[in-house]
């Protein structure tokens, strides 16, 4: 008999008491939700920012309009000479229009340019499917346009996150986005830059992956706030 | 924390049984006598069944369930009336309260008996706090003590809280916390014989931590831990010694402070 | 048994000897104590509300028990889903089979270098030895594992493999063994050295190997938990990804993952989440530009079905490998991970190693506990570790219980002398009159108490009976 058959046969031969009822996972999270104050958009944003900062991730508050300029400024400040992006991304045009130096599309299979990716690519920009406020986490589903290594190999990872896509918990995100119906080949949760505490329990960043994670948090309500402020400033004495 | 959830405590009874434990019987009988005195002072009559020996724990934890069960069975019959059974040791109380029902799981009649007994078993300090509801009047001079609670007492019986509650009633006694307070002292019954190097290291760290508090003495509601630590200290020729909690409580509140 | 298991054989006497050496090593004691204290306080900070923690533990325990109760069908569902997703699934009854499968895959791809993400199962099956025997480099890429491998050692903790080493030792190791590396005690610089070496290896390796934290049956998804990113490198850069896992890691649904994941990281290192949670459901699809072109999962039994065969011992398999039991174990804290001589040290090792290696080799391990219960108290999935230790002590010293299958090495610690001692003990303690007579004699002849009392008197003065037993004092009081 095969190993498979032997293993399954041994498992099936084991005494089985009463099989427990299926765990009521949604009810568990419902109960927590019922016992805590209702979450608001603002609270989620604040919690996300706090937690991401705790993980050493930088959060930059931007609008859907000004983020390319902000990104250009940050890249210049950090001395980024090459920025990897997905050509078919919704944000590609805006990115190109911003005049950021060294834009580099991920347009070939990795095998054809592995060395350049590892040794000569300063940063990568990816989109996200949303975030998780409770833990300060990005949800990233790499695909043909924005492949897996974009968020891993370059020393700086920029991520665009829509503030409207923040969920309270991993469980909420999983349900709202109906993950179980169609998981991609690779789905990622990312909470901060790569790190290790393997030497004397001392934290060090940039173990193998990015040394820096910069989240561009897109929030048009922020623009309304700032526009109001600008108007007020103009009307001032 | 009691595995069965918060415990329901009965009213103060007229009588109780005392289960002295084998260690107290042979090595620190005064602790048993002081438990008796504390109970009697509350106006409770104490019955001491002369046929009691040991709860069976040593065999149980060593992997000899048959022998443990035989010894447990011999105790099971000794407390026929519905009075509470008071045990001046958290780990023996834990065995009777939590392991007796498992030991007799295959015999419905004995299991029922074990369950009924388990319901009536109280660790001494637990009984003094929650059932006898003692109020202690401290008559001693100011003192600084540390408290070591055995692991079984802590995890099976919640004894660390009961011991602390009793000591809090003693006005002139300051209870100091030691480092790694909840950590095992390394006794562990036959563990101390089987793995002397590890057990000694644990006992050594525990006495260091107790001494570092600057306490004059340390207290324990379990004779096993107390003896293990005291004999460790004696081997080091260190005069620092522990006392059974019952002895300390009696001495502080009976005017027998000078008694040895 | 086979060779890979022989390597883990640690005779009882050797465990005690290693433990003695370890407790005498002040440096080791200090570093483990410091690290464990740190991890204990980090974990405690994650669970400020005891009732909330108990609710989480109840759910996690329920999920694990439910998954185990349905294990055979969930394994089949997982295999089916993964196969649909393009993953090749293999089954291995023991370590030797697992290694043969992996070596075979590597050889088909003419592999010279395999990079490894953290996988305790690969340690358990001694994969590195098998790869070396086949002439293939198997390089550990988790920083701690890399350090340990560079020094020819094994991990001393399942989550923090190099916890026994100081940064000075690592500085010296790197300066000696890493070409071009100078001596530095800066942790950032040391990590930088490791990073540079390993990124080069990720680029060049033909095969990447990883473990699995949770395998989701309904979607055919393998979940990996990590902070460093080496796991992502190993599962993404090389052309072939091989995942290896114990058969017990499967859960039915994706929604079963968040409660377990949340407890795993909080219990292990006191983190609310790790940097990366990597969910892999298949190899590179047409059009995708990276990810392995070929993906395998090796499901390993290696004694797990033995534990599964007994309803009490089955709870061993609830483990999610957080390491909290060892962090809180006073024995582990004193002796460190290496003294155990097994892949899994500490309390979880004491209850799982007997199934992997047999009681012949491991019967001393379940005795290396004072049964203090700290492990069971912190276990996020409520494995009753102390009860399982007691059960294994029993199995080591007796024939199988009626109606129970014999464990491998059943009765390995049987001893006529020990049997006689306990039978004599029971005879004495079940005969009250005899017991009282014994007490009378022991107290009257207390001056004759032996001065050497075995292990007890190694660091303690001898136990000496009191002048009178409590029985006698009570009897005297009655007469009064």
UniProtKB/TrEMBL annotation, chain A:
A Pfam family it matches: LUD_dom
Chain ranges of the LUD domain: 45-218
InterPro entries given in the database record: FTHF_cligase-like_sf, LUD_dom, NagB/RpiA_transferase-like
Gene3D superfamilies linked: NagB/RpiA/CoA transferase-like
PANTHER family: LACTATE UTILIZATION PROTEIN C
Protein name: Lactate utilization protein
Lineage start: Bacteria, Pseudomonadati, Pseudomonadota, Betaproteobacteria, Candidatus Accumulibacter
From TrEMBL, chain B:
InterPro entries recorded: Cys_rich_dom (IPR004017)
A GO term for molecular function: oxidoreductase activity
Sequence ranges assigned to domain Cysteine-rich in this UniProt record: 17-96, 145-229
Source domain of life: Bacteria
GO cellular component, one term: cytosol
Signal peptide (UniProt feature, chain positions): none
Pfam families: CCG (PF02754)
Protein's name according to its UniProt entry: (Fe-S)-binding protein
The species this protein was found in: Candidatus Accumulibacter meliphilus
Automatic annotation (TrEMBL), chain C:
GO molecular function terms listed in the Swiss-Prot or TrEMBL record: 4 iron, 4 sulfur cluster binding; metal ion binding
Domain 4Fe-4S ferredoxin-type: 309-338
Domain of life the protein comes from: Bacteria
Keywords annotated in UniProt: 4Fe-4S, Electron transport, Iron, Iron-sulfur, Metal-binding, Repeat, Transport
One record GO biological process: lactate metabolic process
InterPro entries listed in its UniProt record: 4Fe4S_Fe-S-bd, 4Fe4S_Fe_S_CS, FTHF_cligase-like_sf, Helical_ferredxn, LUD_dom, LutB/LldF, LutB_C, NagB/RpiA_transferase-like
Family annotation (PROSITE patterns): 4FE4S_FER_1 (PS00198), 4FE4S_FER_2 (PS51379)
Cited Gene3D superfamilies: Alpha-helical ferredoxin, NagB/RpiA/CoA transferase-like
PANTHER family: LACTATE UTILIZATION PROTEIN B
The protein, known as: Iron-sulfur cluster-binding protein
Organism: Candidatus Accumulibacter meliphilus
